[in-house]
């Protein structure tokens, strides 16, 4: 399916000379190899030229654009509760790029920013109940790209994830590299991230036990956590842990406290983001009666990671090393 850029996009620049006007092809024009077609969530999407005004939602998505060197093409970003800016390796980029100053993305925000491309995901900005979906943007003439971690997989009405989490990261880097004409940079990043993960895995002794690990995101009545399609799954498993929710064929979803207790995690990873602090989340876990005899709580084994380290994004590979270092430090526990 072809998604043409809206009329806001610049087609060419006229250069006036003594011989009259000439047309200078801008980067991303047909002369530079466009149109390009990529497969996103199982659907072929064609771009006639490289977008120039991106609106992006959530920290991992925005940081992916920064890693690709596309900061100058971001017309604005939306971060719920402005999370992860302070800890981001791209903090200076965040400060240079327009912050749209809202917690939610909407058609109005996108149009006001003059966007010709939206990078978001299901439950990462795209939601049927808010009327903001790729289909709705198509109707406005604004192309979009869906975060691969969030692709719907058909296991339930809203379950997400269609490939291993790190492969989703590499897929999106390569697809965006083609869309924006920065494929060489994308391949450099994929090579670099694969090496970071390989080196992290190499630190895990073959005879070291693999502790059972539960990821706690939020929730009191029911815990919100990551399944096998969330980036957190490979952050945990490649770091040498046994992910206790690996059987959930979803990315981010709810489970039951009874299930957590039955699987008796020996380590709990806490997803740190506002408005509830990691300290408050830990205090809840330590005071919640059903978890009193869970090994991780009894032995106070908690590892705090930033939100952007656990959702799909360029911080995932380094997070694998953080998990490996923590679990290696437990020894035989």
UniProtKB/TrEMBL annotation:
Every Fe/B12 periplasmic-binding domain range: 53-333
**PROSITE patterns, A to Z:** FE_B12_PBP, PROKAR_LIPOPROTEIN
Q: Which Gene3D superfamilies match?
A: Nitrogenase molybdenum iron protein domain (3.40.50.1980)
- Sorted alphabetically, which Pfam families does this protein's record hold? Peripla_BP_2
Q: Which UniProt keywords apply?
A: Signal
InterPro entries cross-referenced by the UniProt entry = ABC_Transporter_SBP, ABC_transptr_periplasmic_BD
- Signal peptide range in chain numbering: 1-21
Q: Which family does it belong to?
A: Belongs to the bacterial solute-binding protein 8 family.
Descriptive protein name: ABC transporter substrate-binding protein
């Amino acid at each position: 399916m072809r998604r043409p850029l809206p009329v806001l996009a610049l087609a060419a620049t006229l250069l006036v000379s003594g011989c009259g006007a000439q047309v200078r092809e801008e980067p991303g024009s047909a002369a530079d190899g466009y149109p390009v077609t990529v497969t996103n969530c199982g659907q072929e999407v064609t771009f006639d030229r490289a977008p120039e005004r991106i609106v992006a939602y959530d920290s991992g998505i925005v940081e992916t654009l920064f890693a690709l060197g596309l900061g100058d093409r971001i017309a604005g970003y939306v971060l719920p509760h402005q999370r992860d800016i302070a800890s981001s390796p791209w903090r200076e980029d965040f400060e240079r790029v327009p912050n749209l100053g809202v917690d939610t993305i909407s058609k109005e925000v996108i149009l006001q920013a003059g966007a010709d491309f939206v990078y978001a995901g299901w439950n990462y900005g795209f939601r049927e109940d808010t009327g903001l979906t790729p289909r709705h943007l198509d109707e406005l003439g604004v192309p979009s790209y869906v975060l691969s971690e969030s692709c719907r997989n058909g296991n339930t009405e809203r379950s997400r994830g269609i490939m291993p989490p790190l492969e989703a990261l590499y897929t999106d880097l390569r697809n965006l590299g083609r869309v924006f004409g920065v494929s060489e940079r994308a391949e450099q990043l994929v090579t670099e991230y694969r090496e970071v993960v390989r080196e992290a895995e190499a630190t895990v002794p073959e005879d070291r036990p693999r502790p059972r690990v539960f990821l706690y995101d939020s929730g009191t009545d029911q815990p919100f956590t990551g399944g096998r399609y969330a980036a957190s799954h490979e952050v945990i498993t490649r770091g040498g842990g046994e992910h206790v929710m690996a059987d959930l064929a979803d990315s981010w979803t709810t489970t039951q406290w009874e299930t957590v207790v039955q699987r008796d995690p020996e380590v709990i990873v806490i997803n740190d983001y506002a408005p509830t602090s990691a300290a408050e989340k830990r205090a809840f876990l330590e005071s919640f009666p059903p978890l009193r005899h869970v090994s991780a709580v009894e032995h106070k084994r908690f590892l705090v990671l930033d939100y952007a380290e656990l959702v799909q994004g360029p911080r995932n590979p380094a997070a694998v090393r953080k998990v490996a270092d923590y679990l290696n430090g437990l020894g035989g526990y």
